[in-house]
Design brief:
The chain is α/β, with parallel strands linked by helices. It is built from eleven helices and eleven strands. Strands 3, 4, 5, 6, 9, 10 and 11 form a seven-stranded mixed beta sheet that branches. Helix 1 packs across helix 2. It is globular. The chain starts with 7 loop residues before the first helix and ends with a helix.
């Protein structure tokens, strides 16, 4: 049965015009004439039977139907482009891997180890995009995911199987100047210093102080940052104490930009996982990557 899909050229013109809300800028992006873009969009409107744009004093604006359609097709065009580039990049190799990953773990832990992968598996190409929440593999082009969460969370991720890589352990760190000349602090000493909060882990400091047996009325106070990399950067600038996984701040510790304020780490209850879709044996490229990753996680 013939698929009910408009031409890709028309979709590309509409996508560009929708993003810019301008036929002129869409034409510039696509290296077409404005009239060519206009004709493609008119043909698409005729195909769909709805108006995608309305004329304004300053050009064009999306209709409600046009805005909905633009929002729906944009990720699909991006996925199609990614899959096309993926196919082009293989060029007879064993294949490439599309990986979804939590951002800080990807940049701070995985990236420094990718040269080792290139040396041991030069045939592999790994494409990485950030994802912080579970998703349906069937709805994406991803082959695997690096995810941070509890055992319960990965168990509830439908249609997947997960392998534990590294158990997360957080430790208080700060800029050396914040210690005021002291080499180490006791847990109770931290209650008098500014605390930097992780917005995705709002209870982290409270849990750490409770585990240390210390009352800390201000455990939930302080500026909040979305990513561990932001929290670590703020701590390195002397803004306060950060509670972060040591494995994510190895460069800052090595350079002396951050120091361990109190050598009392705490297991956070979370783990970094390799998550694969549960659909039989992985293809050879993915199996090789998974084996390498598990070995790298062992240190």
């Amino acid at each position: 049965m013939r698929r009910k899909i408009p031409s890709l050229q028309a979709l590309a013109c509409f996508d560009a015009a929708a993003r810019h809300e301008s036929y002129t800028r869409a034409a510039q992006e696509l290296a077409l004439t404005q009239s060519a873009v206009s004709r493609q969009i008119a043909a698409l409107e005729d195909y769909l039977g709805i108006a995608l744009f309305r004329r304004t004093r300053h050009g064009v604006a999306l209709t409600l139907g046009g805005a909905d359609y633009a929002r729906q097709i944009a990720p699909r065009l991006q996925a199609l482009e990614r899959d096309t580039l993926d196919a082009m990049s293989r060029q007879g190799t064993a294949g490439s891997i599309s990986l979804a990953a939590v951002p800080t773990f990807a940049t701070r832990w995985l990236m420094p180890r990718l040269p080792q992968l290139a040396n041991s598996h030069p045939e592999l190409v790994v494409h990485i995009e950030t994802r912080t929440r579970p998703f349906l593999f069937a709805d994406t082009g991803f082959d695997a995911a690096l995810y941070s969460g509890t055992a319960e969370q990965v168990a509830n991720w439908a249609g997947t199987r997960a392998t534990a890589l590294i158990e997360e352990e957080v430790v208080p760190v700060c800029a050396p100047a914040l210690l005021g000349g002291r080499k180490r602090l006791q847990p109770r000493d931290l209650t008098g210093l500014p605390l930097l909060q992780q917005s995705t882990r709002p209870e982290a400091w409270r849990q750490w102080f409770e585990a240390m047996g210390v009352e800390a009325p201000a455990a939930l106070s302080g500026p909040r940052y979305e990513l561990y990399s932001m929290t670590a950067a703020a701590a390195a600038q002397g803004l306060g104490l950060a509670l972060v996984p040591r494995l994510l701040i190895e460069p800052e510790l090595a350079r002396g930009e951050l120091v361990v304020a109190c050598p009392r780490p705490l297991k956070s209850g979370r783990t970094y996982w390799l998550v694969l879709p549960d659909r039989g044996e992985p293809r050879p490229a993915l199996a090789a990557f998974a084996a390498w990753l598990q070995q790298a996680a062992k240190g």
